[in-house]
Specification:
Length: 156
């Protein structure tokens, strides 16, 4: 029993390292969609994940198409600011995939257009000077809601 966290073209090593640590400590699988903005051997990535890397189930995919070809049935959820559906408004399933976009641009429109009913967002103030939460914080918020709904399978 697990959920899957998917990072589409992540750019900032410490964010990915923090997310890897969250995944390692909760039993979530982490999927990285290339191209990455860093090397997986990057010292900042390793430092942010501390010494939890051996606990992490990690897959790296050459593209979003390769990822979806490997996991064609999802179920998928796409975190975005471009929807009215809150992350708490859905019922997460065991083995679901929660997909997050890159830090500077989010997910491409082509992905949004193919899955409009599966978009979710974290509520926040609508302000011209801010775009969204830090990626690692957003992953933690949504992942813990999904894990809560699944009754925290890592505790069993």
């Amino acid at each position: 029993m697990a959920i899957n966290i998917v990072l589409f073209e992540p750019e900032i090593p410490p964010n990915t390292g923090n997310i890897a640590r969250t995944c390692a400590l909760t039993g979530c699988r982490l999927h990285l969609i290339e191209p990455l903005g860093f090397s997986i051997d990057n010292k900042h990535l390793k430092r942010a994940g501390l010494d939890y890397w051996h606990l992490l189930e990690l897959e790296v995919h050459a593209s979003i198409e390769a990822f979806m070809e490997k996991y064609p049935h999802g179920p998928y959820y796409f975190s975005t600011t471009k929807t009215d559906k809150l992350y708490t408004d859905v019922s997460y399933e065991d083995e679901c995939f929660i997909i997050f976009g890159k830090e500077t641009a989010g997910l491409p429109d082509r992905i949004h257009e193919n899955h409009p009913e599966k978009r979710i967002k974290i509520p926040m103030l609508d302000h011209d000077d801010v775009r969204s939460l830090n990626l690692s914080n957003a992953v933690a918020v949504v992942a813990y809601e999904a894990l809560r709904q699944l009754e925290f399978p890592f505790l069993k």
